[in-house]
Amino acid sequence: MEKEKLISELEELRKIYNKGESIIIPALWRAQEIYGYLSDEALEVLSSQLNITKEKLLQVATFYHFFHTKPVGKYHIHICTNISCMLSGAYEVVKTLKNELNVDENEITPDGLFSWEEIECIGLCDKPVAGFINRYRLTNLNPENIKEVLKNPEKYAPEKPKIELI
Ligand code: FES
């Protein structure tokens, strides 16, 4: 089912990203959204459909922090712990996440819903503590509002549009 969905969405993406290898990043995004992570099957489908080697796809995917080659929770939360965010309480937010979810960094909650990890600066230093839930930005985080994010993750990370012009 995922395979068919990805193949059909690649056809749509090809209409937009039709120059050189410009399709790689959006195709990796869609594969990740459909499969939850870049599984072997997802990479094989991309490779055969796009005629790009699996090795090349993996080179791109592993260069960027936001692509996952191992399973993550349905909602994966990144928290920046670099200087600006750290001084604004990033580790309090991390501690709250850890306590609320009862899993360590890069572990998945038993219901499959959440996982989290620390990241380096994401350029939102003026709105610390900053992070992401899936591909959506989170700013001005603190131990209280991160709990709100956990209660209503779909509000902060809604279903993605089928095609994005980015
Ligand atoms: S230090 Fe956290 S976004 Fe820059």
Number of helices: 8
Radius of gyration: 17 Å
State the secondary-structure class.
alpha+beta
Gap from first CA to last CA:
26 Å
Q: Can you tell me about this structure?
A:
- 47% of the residues lie in helices and 11% in strands.
- By secondary structure, it is an alpha+beta fold.
- The chain has 2 domains: 62 residues; 82 residues, 3-Layer(aba) Sandwich (Glutaredoxin), CATH 3.40.30.
- The protein has a 4-stranded mixed sheet with strand order 2-1-3-4, with helices on one face.
- Helix 1 packs antiparallel against helix 2, helix 1 crosses helix 3 and helix 6 runs parallel beside helix 7.
- The longest helix has 15 residues.
- The mean pLDDT is 93.
- The structure holds FE2/S2 (inorganic) cluster.
- The site of FE2/S2 (inorganic) cluster (FES) has 12 residues, from helix 5.
- FE2/S2 (inorganic) cluster binds next to helix 5.
Keywords:
Glutaredoxin, binds FE2/S2 (inorganic) cluster, 166 residues, 2 domains, elongated, alpha+beta
Question: Would you kindly provide a brief summary of this structure?
Answer:
The chain has 166 residues and is an alpha+beta fold. The protein is 47% helix and 11% strand.
Write the layout of secondary structure elements.
Elements (H helix, E strand, L loop, with lengths): L1 H15 L7 H12 L4 H11 L3 H10 L11 E6 L2 H5 L2 H12 L12 E6 L11 E3 L2 E3 L4 H9 L1 H4 L10
Parallel strand pairs: 1-2
Antiparallel strand pairs: 1-3, 3-4
Helix pairs in contact: 1-2, 1-3, 2-3, 6-7
Bound molecules: FE2/S2 (inorganic) cluster.
The site of FE2/S2 (inorganic) cluster has 12 residues, from helix 5.
